[in-house]
Amino acid sequence: MNAFLKRLIPWLVPALAGCAGAAVEPAMPSLDFVPGEVRVTEHRGADDLLSAGLGLAGLAGAPVPFADPAHPTADELRRRAIQSSWKGIADLGPLGGYGQVYGGVPAVPGREYQAFAWIAGAHQPHRVLLQAPDGFDRARRCLVVTASSGSRGIYGAIALAGAWGLPRGCAVAYTDKGAGSGFFDYADDSGVALDGRRARRGEAPLEFTPPPLPPDAGIAVKHMHSGDDPEADWGRHVLQAARFGLAMLDRAYPDQAPFTPQNTRIIATGLSNGGGAVLQAAGLDEEGLLDGVVALEPNVQLAGQGRQLYDYVTEAAIWLPCALSAERFDAVPFARAPTATHWPQRCASLHARGLLAGSTPRAQAEEAYARLRAAGWSDAAMQVAATSTAFDLWRAVAAGYASAYLRRGTRDMPCGFRYAATGQDGRPALADAAVRAAWWSDSAGIPPGNGVGLYGGTGAGADPTLAGELCLRALWEGSDADARALHAGIDATAARLPRADLPLWVVHGADDGLLPTAFTSEPYIAWLRAAGRRPLYWKVPHAQHFDAFLPLPGFGERHLPLLPYGYAALDRLWDHLYCDAPWPAAVAAPEGRPRGAHALTRAALGLP
Q1: Which Gene3D superfamilies does UniProt cross-reference here (predicted)?
Q2: Could you tell me the residue ranges of all domains in the chain?
Q3: Which of 151, 434, 525, 534 has CA 20 to 30 A from 342's CA?
Q4: How many CA atoms lie within 13 A of 568 on its CB side?
Q5: Does the annotation count 443 as an active-site position?
Q6: Which residue, 540, 534, 601, is CA-closest to 565?
Q7: pTM
């Protein structure tokens, strides 16, 4: 049923209620993509859906302890996974305004339905989850579908989709989009079961089960080693999660069943990689499942337009350390951090290889800066990118994504990279049982971090990481079989055009230094408009990519959070879908201002 007919379904609730009731519709097809169990859990009282009973203060506090660190319970793992997902996405600092100026963390009792779902032809599953609140609004049947940001686990979008949807009575369906933190450790041949606890191969269905290898094969990570190039299927993961959500709504509220795309509004939203996933879903939604899409700072890639993620990430890994050593960046947060002391050495290394002509460190830094400016990097993006450079994020992303695009395993990652547990001296070692048990709840899904290191890909000399970074760059610039395979993997991730009448809103920070707007949202919006679509676009001044970085020194004073603008766009979409508010032809970007040394105020956001 197309979107026009979908809107003609007769609503049975008076217009005064502002929303629609359920019409009688045929049931959804059977869930043939969920061959195993669906785990159902109750979350009430001292536990809930949105914060696992922690509330805002608990989410912002120290990591929730495990009674037995080596053997945490499923409830403990879930609680800490929710906490770490919140802390990884939202600014919960005392000056950030969350819960006072925007957003909130009310207690939302309800049930969770969780399973492993399979895309046709995939080697590994993706995890899907429906949160069904007890206060589900039966008069305004709403399902929010979302995908985790970055490579995070199943709760990786809870601060966006859950925080907006659950308090207003929507159910929320999540997917980890074929990534997640269900790391497999060959040392004890264990992975992560459906309840988050560790299990050995063959003991239970696992989030990720790679081919057998000897115990010294290290750590396997689903995003990088599944053999599926999961980014190419992000949109399918989202649409499958929506179908799972509808089927679980039938179970959660049988007196209201069936739940179908014709009688239930489905709103897709996501952030970063999750934003790219919902835009992919919009282009694949031939059945008209989705009623509207709000994408925040999306990692969206186009065929032949904009710049591909792998292109500018490998460029940043090589050139930003040198460029950021220029005097113009002396006052930029993290540009002079202890981890940045070796950046001038990068200039010398590039000069020694004939890649920079300047004869002095100052001239070399300015030359690297000019190169990046010519490639489309803005000053604002480079300034904020100092943080990602200081955290060695570019190399981590490039190595991991290269492996995913090439469909490699743990022992044949490109350029000699590999993942292994990290010992106290920083060298590969056997994982401690407590560290291993916490991976699922604590990890962001892409090493290094949480006791898993990125090793290999290094050379001799004072700048050891350059060799691996140049090797990764050669996969982009080369023409051999590996380079062609990498480009084929990237090409498969390109977004397609959404249907012409789909309400779609992209919200992106003007200062994003990880996914610069010039490489992502702006080409995507221009492409849509050239094709006759009418997307809305907010390029938010002073906002950057990581709200969670705003409590860091120098960040909150300079930058605004992006989440409140995402919530505002979702509010406008709600008014359009449920209250007949007209969908605007265009929107002006809010004129917010940094909070400086003071606490964030509503006025600083510049929202109406």
Answers
A1: alpha/beta hydrolase (3.40.50.1820)
A2: 3-296, 309-417+456-490, 504-605
A3: 151
A4: 22
A5: no
A6: 540
A7: 0.94
